[in-house]
Specification:
- The protein is globular and about 60 Å long.
- It folds into 2 domains: about 100 residues, NAD(P)-binding Rossmann-like Domain (Rossmann fold, 3-Layer(aba) Sandwich), CATH 3.40.50.720; about 160 residues, 3-Layer(aba) Sandwich (Rossmann fold), CATH 3.40.50.720.
- By secondary structure, it is of the alpha/beta class.
- The protein has 14 helices and 11 strands.
Length: about 350
């Protein structure tokens, strides 16, 4: 079996070799020539998996070591008889940590008081559920919006309009979709931000860049319809909007889910998916590294709480704001972070 693997997938080297021959390449550089005689492709979001890449190849299985899969042309893969899978929930707790720590850092800077907040969580799947759990531990009031779960008869879900009118913080955790009954492309748009005027909430996007219309968000910030923004996922990555970069409280390079725990989960799930597809009984030993003694994510400050010792988003934000042209390098050379 031959596997073509994104070389930035962590902890995979030495374990993928249990499956067969491996070739590692930068995700954005994987070509049709590379995959022509491969059986399996293991990628992240930087590899567009479609007809242009895969037609005429021997690839039978595409695995993305991520939750999101909008970089995969699922309709064409189905037509071509190529199976695909993602890693749902692999880094959900990491995103929960990110959101909670962003709020704690803003509390430290006296921007807000977490105990008084109503948090609106939009999209309550694997990731959104972990975000709810993380902010509930901060004693926040929670509003949840997930039309699919509400339609299935589950209780305690509200409409997006209610979140716009009542939430102090709105955090998005949906996939990026342009069709279906509830498309999410530009879900947060001018109409949504206009409905936010009374509460002027903080907007967090750690979902997909296109879920928030960034030009409408900038206008909403300028017109004080919202308090501000925390942006981890951007439209047109890695070419990010410089004005939004400057205005955001925290601006990070798509790393909300980048804890070592989440990365290990995604890699383990990816390799297990390959083994299961080919009926192989193989055990994979993938564990995140332990934190060194006296570790703190921000080495320049004494943390005010255990959560900020383990992760301080200010560090990642300062790096991106100083070096926006290094978006991919900051993402690819991410420091050790544990949940």
């Amino acid at each position: 079996m031959k596997l073509i693997i994104d070389n930035a997938i962590p902890f995979i080297k030495g374990e993928a070799e249990k499956l067969g021959e491996t070739v590692y390449k930068r995700g954005a550089d994987i070509t049709a020539t590379d995959v022509r005689d491969a059986d399996v492709l293991i990628v992240r979001t930087r590899t567009r998996c479609d007809r242009a890449l895969l037609e005429g190849s021997n690839v039978r299985l595409v695995v993305t070591a991520t939750i999101g899969f909008d970089h995969i042309d699922t309709a064409w893969l189905a037509e071509a008889g190529i199976r695909w899978t993602n890693c749902p929930g692999c880094n959900a707790a990491s995103v929960g940590q990110y959101v909670a720590c962003c709020l704690l850092r803003l509390q430290q800077e006296k921007v807000l008081d977490v105990r008084s907040l109503t948090i609106g969580v939009v999209g309550v799947g694997h990731v959104g559920t972990e975000v709810v759990a993380a902010v509930e531990r901060l004693d926040c009031r929670i509003l949840q919006c997930d039309p699919f779960r509400a339609e299935a008869g589950e209780e305690d879900f509200v409409e997006l309009k209610t979140i716009a009118e009542q939430a102090d913080v709105v955090t998005f955790h949906t996939p990026l979709t342009k069709d279906g009954p509830y498309p999410t492309h530009h879900l947060a748009n001018a109409d949504f931000f206009s409905a936010c005027r009374a509460k002027q909430p903080l907007i967090i996007n750690a979902a997909r860049g296109g879920v928030v219309d960034e030009q409408d968000l900038l206008a909403a910030i300028d017109h004080k319809h919202v308090k501000g923004a925390i942006i981890d996922t951007w439209e047109h990555e890695p070419q990010i909007d410089q004005r939004l970069l400057e205005k955001a409280f925290f601006a990070t390079p798509h790393i909300a889910g980048y804890s070592a725990d989440g990365k290990a989960n995604g890699t383990r799930m990816s390799l297990q998916a390959v083994a299961d597809f080919f009926g192989l009984d193989i055990a994979f030993n993938i564990l995140p590294p332990a934190l060194p003694a006296n570790y703190r994510y921000n080495p320049f400050e004494r943390p005010v709480c255990e959560q900020l010792r383990r992760y301080d988003p200010l560090v990642d934000s300062m790096a991106l704001k100083k070096y926006p042209m290094l978006f991919e390098q900051l993402r690819g050379n991410y420091p050790l972070r544990r949940e």
